[in-house]
Amino acid sequence: MKTRFIYNPKSGHNAKSPHLLERARLFIAQHKLDADVVLTERTRHATELARRAVDDGCELIVAIGGDGTMNEVAAALIDSPAALGLIPCGSGNGLGRHLGIPGPGKGAFRNLLNGDIRTIDTGLANGIPFFNAMGVGFDAEISHRFNRLTHRGLPAYVHTTFGTLFRFRPQKYTIRSGDMSITTSAFIISVANSDQYGNDCFIAPGASVDDGRLNITVMKSIHLFNALPIALRLFTKRIDGSASVQRLLGPSFSIERPVPGLLHTDGETHETAALIEVTVRPRSLRIMVPHREAAAA
Ligand SMILES: Nc1ncnc2c1ncn2[C@@H]1O[C@H](COP(=O)(O)OP(=O)(O)OP(=O)(O)O)[C@@H](O)[C@H]1O
């Protein structure tokens, strides 16, 4: 299978140590693969590299990075015959965790040799693709601040979150889907394809990446007294029981706010219009996941 590895030297652990670059090259040599490794040089470059890989006839295109790199590579593979491979090494790895794709020290490379191909849904927010989750409000603000940090990881994420939490003000939104319309003040509106943001923080427990539907989670208010209980619920898949949370499921939604602002797609932020149209493109991305028997073992 003609394969190309796309390595982001700036993501997660790669920024601290380039050992995965060497590991990928060694893996190719050891298994005599028809494969090569290319490095990203700037934001969005991974999409260009992945497009070129598809044009070159690659059947497997492997992102070595976090959810941002995964998103950029996957964006070029929508509706293409090429499959995405993941060596998840970012700070959250939401899609990889949801799909049971192990980290590089735990079988991610082996998975590329003996994995199964699954075809998953793609979400689009005003035309911008996402594969794990998109969101507005506090969610997008945190992504924006987090992306500007030089030191990432769970401790930095927790620090950024709590540093911003009590200063952030909820905004008014109208969510529409078919005949349904809800106007509410919300702290976060998250639209998830998978069940988690990353780091086993479950924003949409029970979500499926191939059911042709997206999961909206509206968090209405977060304040001094409910922040910790909500955090505990997020990490124990019990967010549904919170009085501050409302969930919706469907193939398309619009989310309207009074003014334009930020949204994030898989953790990368974008300025966008006040009206956000969110749609799903069912089963449009092929991705290599652990072989069913190996995953069950
Ligand atoms: N050579 C480069 N120089 C600077 N930025 C880059 C380069 N290559 C890719 N990027 C950008 O690096 C960003 C971070 O990548 P990625 O999300 O994979 O890592 P992460 O943020 O550490 O992981 P996670 O999303 O899991 O937290 C992406 O926005 C990507 O566009």
UniProtKB/TrEMBL annotation:
Keywords: ATP-binding, Kinase, Lipid biosynthesis, Lipid metabolism, Magnesium, Metal-binding, Nucleotide-binding, Phospholipid biosynthesis, Phospholipid metabolism, Transferase. One of its GO terms (biological process) is phospholipid biosynthetic process. Signal peptide: none annotated. It holds the Pfam family YegS_C. Its cofactor is Mg(2+). Residues 1-129 form the DAGKc domain. PROSITE patterns: DAGK. One of its GO terms (molecular function) is kinase activity. PANTHER family: LIPID KINASE YEGS, SPHINGOSINE KINASE. This is Diacylglycerol kinase. It comes from Nibricoccus aquaticus.
